[in-house]
């Protein structure tokens, strides 16, 4: 094949090189443009396909979640657990109205409300709602908490679950709202009502909270704690007036079962939950971060008796929290309160 070249013997080397390869840019540049255009088209196609796939997965997850909401619990994976909680689901003819925020809880907000049926019947309830945006592990823990209440809390002196909600969001735990409610707040209200009494030693007697009342409440709390230990080998771990609910006729129920729940779930109360218990209510072995035993509850129960007698006064009033353990190790003990008579 003959190649026609314009180079002559008189032409310079650079002129021959440029003239020989002059058509190449005309070929290469359009090729590069075509290749770039093809790459852009491919990238656009991949991006669109990825977006469509993500949208399809989202819709599939939503549809599947809706289906699970009607046929089962999206948060309670075990069929056995679903069967255990199914009888506790909020009836379809019930609605929760008038929610009033009480305090933040470990898993979400704690509110007070009214559970109303279509026939007009209603009852006051405490609603523990599981917060949004929680991790999968926390969701599983809350489901275990519902099972804990369904299987463990079956004693008249232990707080009991009325209903739960697992088949639609938010997950909820409904407890009976006792009146007057929290024992510590009730004791404070009695003390505030009679703070001007001329005879402080007879303060509880004058307000209808006598030593007989103290004995009645204390006996019921002891029965609830004994049930947890004897029937389920559970240490409550946070015995205090703030964790006792008072109902009509001074009926008492042990509440605040977070540490006990952790003990049942993990085999021992985790330090994170144990650290939430104020030092002045803890037994020495608890303060030193040792394993809690039933005798730790007995110690805290003694602090509860002090709260009952003094209408909600904090224990060791003369000591700072960090000074309690050294004093206890030196055999220091609180004196008998002025309001505590010899018989009690």
TrEMBL record:
GO terms for molecular function: ATP binding; transmembrane receptor protein tyrosine kinase activity. The chain crosses the membrane at residues 27-48. One of its GO terms (cellular component) is receptor complex. Residues 96-344 form the Protein kinase domain. GO terms for biological process: cell surface receptor protein tyrosine kinase signaling pathway. Keywords: ATP-binding, Membrane, Nucleotide-binding, Transmembrane, Transmembrane helix. It comes from the Eukaryota. InterPro entries: Kinase-like_dom_sf, Prot_kinase_dom, RTK, Ser-Thr/Tyr_kinase_cat_dom, Tyr_kinase_AS. This is (Atlantic silverside) hypothetical protein. It comes from Menidia menidia (Atlantic silverside). The lineage of its organism: Eukaryota, Metazoa, Chordata, Craniata, Vertebrata.
